[in-house]
């Protein structure tokens, strides 16, 4: 397998983020200057600044995730649409994408599946109450290898908010391997991914293609 870092050229995205951050800095500076004006209400401005931050975060996380995954699977689109749908329905999910490190020695293997990754199969596997919905789905290249896998939990104490076991399992596997683990929270619908012991939010953005994006 190729290294994802060789595949991705981060510089155009970084340039574009720098430009957006400069614009945002200018905007915040202007807001500070107008703050002392009588009768000036900043609420609208704060809302717009928050939206700009979210847009920057959203674009960056989509870019990184795509870079990390695309050398190892052609199914980024299927994965992204599935997690958005699971998120909207508040169906909890844990999806492991294997990269260079073999995962079977690290995880407790569940039920073999051996089918091509499709949006409908992924969403069905996490349908609440169905026999395979608990645990993690393992994806290798373009195949769903297995479901109901048990991942090692992270024992590192995370700063608040306290994380439940689904999120700790995602972080735990990412501490021991180079896998990328997508998590959909059943409680909040929030989507995140774990990589190298960190959990990163994926901020949804309404796009025409309905793809996962920051
Ligand atoms: N070690 C593990 N390996 C794989 N899946 C796990 C593991 N631990 C928990 N899970 C999954 O997470 C579910 C429980 O999630 P829990 O509510 O404890 O965590 P959470 O991080 O708060 O997630 P959510 O935000 O979805 O509620 C279990 O039913 C199971 O499907």
Automatic annotation (TrEMBL):
Keywords in alphabetical order: ATP-binding, Cell membrane, Membrane, Nucleotide-binding, Nucleotidyltransferase, Transferase, Transmembrane, Transmembrane helix
Enzyme's top EC category: transferase
Subunit structure: Probably oligomerizes.
Its job: Catalyzes the condensation of 2 ATP molecules into cyclic di-AMP (c-di-AMP), a second messenger used to regulate differing processes in different bacteria.
HAMAP family: DacB (MF_00838)
Family that this chain belongs to: Belongs to the adenylate cyclase family. DacB/CdaS subfamily.
Protein name, per record: Diadenylate cyclase
Species in which this protein is naturally found: Paenibacillus lutrae
Gene this chain is encoded by: dacB
């Amino acid at each position: 397998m190729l290294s994802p870092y060789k595949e991705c050229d981060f510089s155009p995205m970084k340039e574009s983020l720098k430009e957006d951050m400069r614009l945002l800095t200018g905007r915040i500076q202007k807001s500070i200057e107008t703050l002392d004006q009588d009768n000036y209400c900043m609420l609208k401005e704060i809302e717009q600044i928050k939206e700009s931050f979210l847009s920057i975060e959203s674009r960056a996380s989509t870019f990184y995730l795509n870079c990390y995954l695309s050398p190892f699977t052609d199914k980024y689109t299927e994965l992204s649409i599935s997690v958005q749908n699971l998120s909207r329905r508040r169906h909890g999910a844990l999806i492991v994408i294997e990269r260079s490190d073999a995962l079977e020695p690290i995880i407790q293997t569940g039920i073999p599946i051996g089918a091509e990754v499709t949006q409908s199969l992924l969403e069905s596997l996490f349908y609440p109450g169905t026999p395979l919905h608990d645990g993690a789905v393992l994806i290798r290249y373009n195949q769903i290898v297995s479901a109901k896998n048990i991942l090692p939990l992270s024992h590192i104490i995370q700063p608040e908010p306290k994380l439940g076991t689904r999120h700790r399992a995602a972080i735990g596997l990412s501490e021991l391997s180079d896998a990328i683990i997508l998590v959909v929270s059943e409680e909040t619908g929030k989507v995140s991914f774990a990589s190298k012991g960190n959990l990163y939010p994926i901020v949804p953005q309404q796009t025409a293609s309905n793809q996962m994006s920051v």
